[in-house]
Amino acid sequence: RPPMPRPARTRVIVSANQKGGVGKTTSTVNIAAALAQLGQKVLVIDLDPQGNACTAFDVDHYQGTPGTYEVLVEGAPLEDVVVPVPKLEGLELVPATIDLAGAEVELVEEGGREQRLKTALAKSPRVGDAEDRWDYVLIDCPPSLGLLTVNALVASTEVMIPIQAEYYALEGLGQLLKTVEMVRAALNPSLKVSSMLITMYDARTRLASQVAEEVREHFGDTVMRTFIPRAVRVSEAPSFGQTVMTYDPGSPGALSYLEAAKELAKQGEK
Ligand code: ADP
Ligand code: MG
Q1: Which residue among 1, 35, 40, 201 is buried most deeply as judged by most CB within 10 Å?
Q2: Coiled-coil ranges per the record (predicted)?
């Protein structure tokens, strides 16, 4: 099987939704792991002070660990704070610690506070078309539309919105889309919502299929064809410091994330 082709230049994709618990982190880490397994060079930037992506990757994120905080607040180069993700070749992480919780406040007085992450990416020799580039930079956002998420939106070209197949799935989506539109208009003209990913889909319930149908009616082809099933193995994996891609590669959750990763890669070929 030929290796998956690399994109011509780094794709920067943010996983955003101001609702908590919809699958932002789970989707980020598993798609990142899947892309790495497909031979891509991948960087995950953890922008959530909770550091859940770090947990899934078994990477330290105790207070004081250099990471996203140093990049945003102190202007540290990304290369200085990236760490390899154990057991997943080709995958690196910028860790987030609880220090990041203070960053929103600390940056309020700073000029260009919305552009901190964009500037860091622009300065990195591994973002762009160089041979040793990251093919994908995936950014995991906190559950809010504050300055951290805005930094991610300004730094990205593509927004992936995970949507939990639940009753209130579409609630709050308008606000998120409005924020994306504001960032696009004021700060980042190349930003677009490229994909919506249905997560925690339970094929046995009518509700899940109704929600999926409704999302598709509203958003058409932006909705990814791959749905991520609700699966215990997916939720267990982080407690073993793993993604489901290594924890149980043959499980339905892992296979779906592999499909989602391939679909995402295909989008980039257009
Ligand atoms: P967010 O980052 O949006 O807050 P998470 O990715 O942390 O959401 O997911 C919220 C919870 O749902 C976590 O406990 C996670 O393990 C669980 N979860 C996410 N996706 C699935 C899935 N496909 N099947 C079962 N549980 C899931
Ligand atoms: Mg999260």
Answers
A1: 35
A2: none
Give me the residue spans of the domains in the chain.
11-269
Query: What is the domain class of 11-269 according to CATH?
Result: alpha beta
What ipTM score was computed for the predicted complex, to two decimals?
0.99
Q: Which of 235, 244, 248, 257 to mutate to test the pocket of ligand 1 (most atoms within 8 A of CB)?
A: 235
Measured distance CA(117)–CA(256) in Å, rounded: 30
Are the C-beta atoms of 67 and 95 separated by less than 8 Å? yes
Place of tokens 């730094």: 155
C-alpha dihedral sign at 69, 73, 77, 78: positive
Q: Is the CB of 252 under 6 A from ligand 1?
A: no
- The number of beta carbons lying within 10 Å of the beta carbon of residue 250 is 7
21 ligand 1 Cβ < 6 A: yes
Say whether 151 sits in a helix, a strand or coil: helix
238 half-sphere exposure, CB direction, 13 A CA radius: 15
Out of 14, 17, 19, 26, give the residue to mutate to test ligand 1, the one with the largest number of ligand atoms within 8 Å of its CB: 26
Supply φ then ψ for residue 265, to 5 degrees: -65, -40
